[in-house]
Inverse folding.
């Protein structure tokens, strides 16, 4: 039985990290695509050569054209310019929108049945553009957003609590931006125990603030965008689709009435499975949480106002 194929468009640090995680878990054969001749081929070969040591037996190939991506079960779109220190994700919109339009045209032709996972920033606007340009059912166009933001939230909570990170469960919804994402401490637990049992409101607010700046903090420290955690978050989403594991993961998806919102892509918890988004989970937000979420959606709509789709 042939292994499924996952194609990653963009062989930069995030795309390469995602390929590494996917190959190491033996989820699928991986194709890396990039416009820079030699880059995807070299990175694919380097990763392939780690197989005998790491113990994975999947095929990793690189290409500058889309031919080898044909028939992919999942296509991950990381193509675009990354933000540099001092830049916001929103400042990338014009350049990256043009790049992603070209990518979508190619991948929907070569892999018309694929689930598309969008990683390119600004995430919410680019996911919306991808959904509109691809013409696919909304279930098959998914942005990373909360999959990454939530793992940062869980990490910072575990550090503050002094407990194992795998025992911490937490959600981040809303826009994937430094100022507008909405961490939800009220829904965060340690083995089912609310984190408010352990942490004061001031401690929780400090963790929320650090979560919002989770990506910016890394960019400021190493003068480049994060890649290891984003790659792992991509892998988590890919695994949920390929294994039909129906994981509950916050992702950026097109809303059509959920949370009182229409015609916008923004992060909410979903059940991920073989069809992509199996269902959207509507949380019982309190008044403060709903206001924060609505403000977050408003920020996304402001970005969309300047986007041609």
């Amino acid at each position: 039985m042939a292994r499924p194929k996952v194609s990653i468009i963009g062989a930069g640090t995030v795309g390469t990290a995602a390929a590494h995680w996917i190959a190491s878990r033996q989820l699928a054969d991986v194709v890396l695509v990039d416009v820079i001749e030699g880059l995807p081929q070299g990175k694919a070969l380097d990763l392939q050569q780690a197989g005998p040591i790491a113990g994975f037996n999947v095929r990793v190939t690189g290409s500058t054209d889309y031919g080898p991506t044909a028939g992919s079960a999942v296509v991950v779109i990381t193509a675009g310019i990354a933000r540099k220190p001092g830049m916001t994700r929103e400042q990338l919109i014009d350049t990256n929108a043009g790049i992603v339009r070209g990518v979508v045209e190619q991948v929907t032709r070569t892999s018309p049945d694929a689930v598309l996972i969008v990683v390119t920033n600004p995430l919410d606007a680019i996911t919306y553009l991808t959904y509109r340009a691809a013409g696919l059912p909304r279930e098959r166009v998914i942005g990373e957003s909360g999959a990454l933001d939530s793992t940062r939230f869980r990490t910072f909570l575990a550090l503050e609590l002094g407990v194992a990170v795998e025992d911490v469960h937490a959600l981040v919804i809303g826009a994937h931006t430094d100022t507008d994402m909405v961490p939800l401490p009220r829904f965060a637990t340690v083995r089912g125990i609310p984190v408010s049992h352990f942490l004061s409101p001031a401690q929780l607010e400090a963790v929320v603030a650090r979560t919002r700046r989770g990506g910016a903090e890394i960019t400021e420290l190493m003068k480049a965008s994060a890649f290891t955690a984003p790659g792992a978050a991509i892998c988590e989403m890919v695994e949920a689709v390929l294994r039909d594991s129906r994981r509950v993961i916050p992702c950026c998806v097109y809303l059509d009435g959920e949370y009182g919102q229409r015609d916008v892509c923004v992060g909410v918890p979903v059940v991920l499975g073989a069809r992509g988004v199996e269902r959207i989970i509507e949380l019982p937000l309190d008044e403060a949480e709903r206001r924060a979420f609505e403000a977050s959606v408003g920020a996304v709509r402001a970005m969309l106002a300047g986007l041609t789709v």
Summary: The chain has a mean pLDDT of 95. The longest strand covers residues 262-273. The CA atoms of residues 35 and 230 lie 21 Å apart.
